[in-house]
Design goal:
There is one protein chain. This protein is α+β, with helices and mostly antiparallel strands. It has helices at residues 10-21, 50-64, 67-73, 182-199, 205-221, and strands at 3-6, 25-27, 40-41, 43-45, 75-78, 82-86, 92-96, 101-103, 109-111, 114-119, 127-128, 131-135, 138-142, 148-153, 158-160, 163-165, 168-177. The chain folds into two domains: 3-177, q2cbj1_9rhob like domain (Jelly Rolls), CATH 2.60.120.620; 182-221. Strand 8 (101-103) and strand 9 (109-111) form a beta hairpin. The radius of gyration is 18 Å and the shape is globular. Bound molecules: nickel (II) ion.
Length: 224
Amino acid sequence: MLLTFPLLTADELARARALLDGAQWQDGRGSAGAQAVQAKHNEQLDPASGASLALQELVTRALERAPRFLAAALPLRIFPPRFNRYTGATNHYGPHVDNAVRFADPVTRVRTDLSCTVFLSDPASYDGGELVIREPGGNRSVKLEAGHAVLYPGTSVHEVLPVTRGERLASFFWIESMVRSPEQRQLLLELDDALMMLREQGESPATIALMGTYHNLLRMWAQT
Ligand code: NI
């Protein structure tokens, strides 16, 4: 499952860009695993910096009111969003897999069921920088409007192609879902989508019964 959705308003995007403009970047290899470190050539914000904390809150707030994200991810825990830059000599991240479990803080572990990237640069302002995700049906190449996000399986091999002009700014993070199984999560999303369509025609005994079915499936499958 790969889902793209608009996340940030124009105001939020402008605020994010202002925070990023004044930020201090550091070598991104500091936070990569032993294998990924060889593929990783980018820069990141220090997650403890003031700019990072303000940006984290901005992105997290936006996620909390993004219905498509909430319906698809059914988040239990969201890793505090991080921020990276691809430009100049540090301009790509070769094929790699993300660690299965990450520490959001010294005591909180997040199982990386889903990965999310929020694009923060105007796609016309840079060349390259596509996020390429290997899926069973073939590679998917993703390069979105600034403020839009892509949600994809944390299990995938993926890469960021070299940025050959300009700079690519993005936010990235992982989600531990209440529903660990991708198949169950997909069924819940399909049921939720169909129910939304039905409810647009008005509530009925059928929509109430189906809503009950949705919640009973979620109750059966969710870990909280
Ligand atoms: Ni990755």
